[in-house]
From TrEMBL:
It comes from Xenotaenia resolanae. Residues 1-16 have a biased composition (Polar residues). Keywords: Fatty acid biosynthesis, Fatty acid metabolism, Iron, Lipid biosynthesis, Lipid metabolism, Membrane, Oxidoreductase, Transmembrane, Transmembrane helix. This is Fatty acid desaturase domain-containing protein. Belongs to the fatty acid desaturase type 1 family. It is found in: Membrane. Pfam families: FA_desaturase. Residues 78-269 form the Fatty acid desaturase domain. The chain crosses the membrane at residues 52-71, 77-99, 194-213, 219-240. Residues 1-21 are annotated as: Disordered. The histidine box domains are involved in binding the catalytic metal ions. It comes from the Eukaryota.
Amino acid sequence: MTGSEPFAKQQQQHTPGNGDVCSEAAVEDAFDNTYKEKEGPKPPRILVWRNVILMTLLHLGAIYGIFLIPAANPPTLLWALVCFLLSALGITAGAHRLWSHRTYKASLPLRIFLAVSNSMAFQNDIFEWARDHRVHHKYSETDADPHNASRGFFFAHIGWLLVRKHPDVIEKGRKLELSDLFADKVVMFQRRHYKLSVLLMCFFVPMFVPWYFWGESLWVSYFIPALLRYALVLNASWLVNSAAHMWGNRPYDKNINPRENRFVTFSAIGMKNTQLSGFKCTVITRVSAV
């Protein structure tokens, strides 16, 4: 949770019970139509300058990496693609489908593989990603939505990472039932060692493999499989928050903004059915209210 509340205290507050955690998670990502945005002026946007600077440098490095592609060995480009796919799996099959929505059960080896791949993606640890994604579904396109698409394409795409969270996002995130995440030892291990795992999997391994195994230069190895690949994974994931809420068809429910967008589906290798996901959450809410 974002804020000053100690993480250990939060963990005690979310001690796993005897209930079905999959059912609890399903309820937690169902849209809450009882939420009402507060009246009056919106809180000021406060820039997080560290994120602004780091994201600017990352994308400048990625652009430079594009110009290095002709100088790269073919195995290096293939390795960058492999890293892209592994990173995307860590988000789509891992943080999204498994840990946010509990759409399937995974064995320990698979959970470890997905957690390692998730660290390669470097989009916050699994616990934080899943918590924020459940908040996004529960309060979609309101002030409590971390990447509220009603605030525009740029905000939904990357802007939400460059400013402080809206107070309602923090408040609602603290109230979610997260016992399934607290109970998952893989999730908690990754959270405790997240910074080290990111340095290793997002930057060192993608750079080291081409240099060590087929003699690629460290310069090319850093800017293509590491920085360029990382920037592409980020933007592919962000398009689900931005483009897939603005452009595409709405086969399931024309009254909600999430849409089916084939380009986003392809680029995010599985973060698809945005319209269907939003439709299911709406249906769950309506059934629960009956």
